[in-house]
From TrEMBL:
GO MF term list: GTP binding; GTPase activity
Keyword terms of this UniProt record: GTP-binding, Lipoprotein, Membrane, Nucleotide-binding, Prenylation
Family: Belongs to the small GTPase superfamily. Rab family.
CDD domains given in the database record: Rab32_Rab38
Pfam families: Ras (PF00071)
Name of the protein in its database record: Ras-related protein Rab
Gene designation: zgc:162171
Organism field: Lates calcarifer
Amino acid sequence: MQHERLLKVLVIGDLGVGKTSIIKRYVHQVFSQHYRATIGVDFALKVLNWDHKTVVRLQLWDIAGQERYGNMTRVYYREAVGALVVFDMTRLSTFQAILKWKGDLDSKVALTNGRPVPAVLLANKCDQRRHGLCPKLPKLENFSREYGFVGWYETSAKDNTNIDAAITCLVKSIMSVEEERSLSEAASAAGKSEPEGSVLVLPRFDYDVKEKGLGGCSGCPSLKPRDRDSD
């Protein structure tokens, strides 16, 4: 029997970077150049048959990029377990705002152990590369690692480039965090019931890490562990 996991994921970034387009492409497989600016917050839900044991109900929160809604983000961010942080490759100012959005995220929501929630950086509108800022941008691999992103991707909602890959990367990272937490809680509970001097042995796993072209997901191990004893 499958069990359900509800994951609240934020989609944040400046006005006009394509947040709504990314969500519409991922959830409904549609694209339009005429979406209205999000006012406050909007929602979308996608159900994923994650594995034979788990159904993921992925709740995507489309957060308005206008400054006047900034004082509401603490309410919107509550109980989020991950985020997509988006900038527009054709507008340098939206890249310069990335650290503001990441800082806002980290200051207002965290995991139960106090660590930042997993976040993936999206360099959106890569279909407009010829108008882009590639020469002016730092190497995103180094940038994302330095500022605590679990991965980064060049994306295009118009061409459907790397949208699925980026969100899968984020969900894998979130599920990996959940797995670690469950193992830690199980170890703690077992430790309390073990007699003094006994040793609790947990299974050891190898994880395969895959990277995509036009991006990478260095922090996203597969959730299909392989027992070393079976190698």
